[in-house]
């Protein structure tokens, strides 16, 4: 079983707040996009998630962090686990106690909204449901859709945080990295603006001809004067 980082976003939050690591180093270690790490640092993403100390969980050493802080090109490496936990092999959907089955639709709605990359089979494994129920909730044809409230399945006790993180990572392996537009970045960088197409040219300012302006004003005054004289003659 390949070693996995527990709670990548929570770990990224802790590293942003407590270390001098670069966004690229944190992104590489936590399997996130650098722009997503920047959004976390700016307070625009992962709000409400408490940071997880990777040192206390034994996944990262202080010496490893110090080496990475001293060398921006150094890539963080996970510490060797002291205890090897065998991967549990489970087939079919997870068994859900009767007392918690009423919370499954709320958990499915939360997963569909917050992790659209998850496949129906993965959601089924996490909360113990069927693909038809997932499809009904996604398309809002479920009999109780009007009363559903998205709720974290971990908080409801339907699955563990480790299982959820593992399923999310599996779904994200073949997924392209998010673009700047998807993460909310709308401004172009200076390098992009400097490389704008040569066809985009500023409109040249027209030189103002003073004589033409005064001639125009003079003609307007004369026409106004002639109009006043005509009105006087009528009276």
Question: How would you characterize the overall build of this protein?
Answer:
The protein is mainly α. Among the domains are: 8-70, no CATH class; 99-174, no CATH class. It is 46% helix and 0% strand. Helix 5 crosses helix 7. The termini are far apart. 19% of the residues are buried. Residues 192-205 have a biased composition (Basic and acidic residues). This is Cytoplasmic protein. Residues 185-208 are annotated as: Disordered. It holds the Pfam family TrcR.
Distance between the termini: 106 Å
Structural class: mainly alpha
Poorly predicted residue ranges: 200-206
Mean pLDDT score, rounded? 77
Major β-sheet annotation: none
Order of helices and strands: HHHHHHHHHHH
Question: TL;DR of this structure?
Answer:
With 235 residues, the protein is mainly alpha-helical. It is built from 11 helices and no strands.
Which key phrases capture this entry?
single chain, 235 residues, 11 helices, 0% strand
What's the structural blueprint in terms of helices and strands?
Layout: H1 8-18, H2 23-30, H3 34-41, H4 62-70, H5 104-114, H6 120-127, H7 131-138, H8 153-156, H9 161-172, H10 190-194, H11 210-234
Helix pairs in contact: 1-2, 2-3, 5-7
